[in-house]
Write a structure and sequence with these properties.
Blueprint (H helix, E strand, L loop, with lengths): L3 E12 L6 E12 L3 E5 L6 H8 L7 E6 L2 E2 L5 H9 L1 E5 L10 H11 L6 H12 L15 H13 L5 E5 L7 H18 L2 E6 L2 H7 L2 E6 L2 E7 H6 L4 H11 L5 H10 L3 E6 L6 H11 L3 E12 L2 E11 L2 H13 L4 E3 L4
Parallel strand pairs: 3-8, 3-9, 6-7, 7-8
Antiparallel strand pairs: 1-2, 1-4, 4-5, 9-10, 11-13, 11-14, 12-13
Pfam family, one: ABC_tran
Keywords: Amino-acid transport, ATP-binding, Cell membrane, Membrane, Nucleotide-binding, Translocase, Transport
Organism: Gryllotalpicola koreensis
Amino acid sequence: MTDALVRLEGVSKTYASPAGPVTAVQDLSLDVIQGEILGVIGYSGAGKSTLVRLINALELPTTGRVFVGDDELTALPEKRRRAVRREIGMIFQQFNLFNSRTVAGNVGYPLKLAGVKQPERDRRIARLLDFVGLLDRAHAYPDQLSGGQKQRVGIARALATDPKLLLADEATSALDPETTADVLALLKKVNRELGVTIVVITHEMDAIRAIADRVAVMDGGRLAELGNVYDVFASPSTPTVARFVATVLRDRPSAETLQRLRASHAGRLVTVKVPDRRGFAGLLASTLAEHGVSGEIVYGGISELQEKPIGSLTYELIGSDAATDAALAALRVNGVVVAEEDAE
Ligand SMILES: Nc1ncnc2c1ncn2[C@@H]1O[C@H](COP(=O)(O)OP(=O)(O)OP(=O)(O)O)[C@@H](O)[C@H]1O
């Protein structure tokens, strides 16, 4: 295989259900590249969990092929598939810790299963707990820990057997925003310092924005979009993707906001996308001035994604209709993406 650690080729999964067959994943082809953090996002029912179960060999596809490393899961006997599964780290929304075992006991469990003996086991547990910042809680029990600490234990346990691949299934969905940020930062450290390839399954675009290199958007079991996170955020190609992006960037005024803006601004409301290049503000100001149009920012903002600016600004433009049209046309010619907000 090339630089893909996971490869899905034309994968579909159909479940039998009392109401008839349900196709959870449909004709999905996707590579997870060695060393990347791939975000997989989609609304509930989009097929994300099924995708996880197909990658970790808990399910076999109805059609298509799945490769992990050099193994074609779809061609392996169940016993060998189980061995591949043990080499994949998993973390879950509900942490899935043993409440009757200490933190050290939870982290050491996969090592015990793998036959790692004392004192090597203790050494590895200490190293893992140090990595996730919980060395001082080794003897605590899960119910003495916060949600974020529990997920750190989950991450340490998932790393115990030195996996090349970590699957995080809604790993931060049960956490508050601050704790989510900490856990995402830890996942990034796992990726950058240990070289572990990570697939982050989530319905939260914020998580994708924070750590993913690329994002796959699933919609109705299909791959709606796959690309570099900045590109997908900057130019979403389908309405589903645009809705996800809007949840994070909140860069276009909502219908209610627009109504309020209209009540206090009589001019034409126009939103421009902030491009990833310098000189944009100057170009905008000079183009408007040339056409005798004045502009005032009434909504929007600029933030950063993958160290590049992203966002949009809504202007109220005041000038004659003809002059405003000419100014907008000139901006478009110069590559500025301009959208006139609808009257409603
Ligand atoms: N074992 C199963 N038997 C029957 N239908 C299933 C089974 N597992 C999943 N489905 C159906 O397949 C579709 C995709 O489910 P899946 O759990 O993969 O989506 P998801 O994106 O992970 O959603 P959520 O975020 O709600 O978990 C849904 O319509 C679901 O009802």
